[in-house]
Amino acid sequence: MTATPPTPGGRGLAPDDALTTHPIPSSATRSKCGSGLVRECGGSIAPCIGSGRVHIHFLGHDRPHHSAPRSAPTRSQHTGVHLYSSLALAALIAMSTLPAYAEPLLERAQSRGALNVCTSDEFPPFKTLDANGNPSGLIMDLIVDLQQQLSIRIGQPLKLSLVQVNPLNRLLFLDQGRCEVLVTSLLDTPARRREVDFASPGFYSSAATVFAPKSTAIPDWESLRGKTLCAPATSVWVRPFERRYGVQFASFNGTAEVRKAVADSRCLGAMGDDALYSALARQPEWADYEVKLPGQEPAPWGIALRKGQPELLAAVSSIVEGWHANGLIIQLEQRYGLTPNAWVAQQHVQARHE
């Protein structure tokens, strides 16, 4: 069955009780330490428990696609997601003394036995497909850990169901209750906080930069006046940089379309997150491109929730705080070969001293 692709109006995905699931068994098994619920013991990250597997369902959509070719990960780039085994997870749930939440969306998650997470295509290695076509990457590992920890907190195992979204419909799907949380490289800004709630702190951070061919001379921001850059239609940086530097923009539905437009030379380069484009520049197929300018207007990436869920918001915020405190995000940066993020390092130091 082929699902109808999402549109800005949200069509193509049935209401919650009529969603079609497509089971995708994960090929990833656990290794010694990773993105399962990591515990801190004596200042170090303790190994994870068990050797279970995770079953991921895509709701209403085919598997996400990526414009760039994929290659099988090397041993040092292994993207396995480290999860609790069924017995270990059941034991932890049984020992949990936290009460079950009574908020509407979480009640629906408990009723269906699955946590619906809205997520989108990202730049590798933040989120990509492994050699078997299953989702992997830093963001995917955090999504799985979030599912594991929420299962423990509500006292019930929850399967993980991914709802594929794009920049145009992601907040709409969240507001419609098609997912409990939205986990992408979504910037936490004051304007977006008027529409949704964000777990605090964020889990990563980035700033605006320009990504273009190495042969393209862009000495500074002022040199972009009157030039055309590609950017997602929902980018929070478009209007400020139009006003400040006179940049013109060609808008696209998402980052995959932006990358394709840049590769086709339909614009001078792309405006986007420095963290994402720095990682993309290290991919072999983008060896002739580079990040051109130092980042401006940094902002954290936040996990978004529909408004009016204080208990779920507090639970997710607590989980993110734990990621910073135990160094999980830093560990994932190292696993995926990412340049250390200064904001993440600062959050880690701050969390360990609180």
From TrEMBL:
Superkingdom as given in the UniProt entry: Bacteria
Q: Where is the Solute-binding protein family 3/N-terminal domain?
A: 114-340
Q: Which UniProt keywords apply?
A: Signal, Transport
May I have one GO cellular component term? extracellular region
Q: Where is this region: Disordered?
A: 1-32
Q: What SUPFAM superfamilies does the entry give?
A: Periplasmic binding protein-like II (SSF53850)
Record GO biological process? amino acid transport
From start to end residue, where is composition biased (Polar residues)?
23-32
What is stated as this protein's family in its record?
A: Belongs to the bacterial solute-binding protein 3 family.
- Name of the protein this chain belongs to: Solute-binding protein family 3/N-terminal domain-containing protein
Q: What is the protein's species of origin?
A: Pseudomonas poae
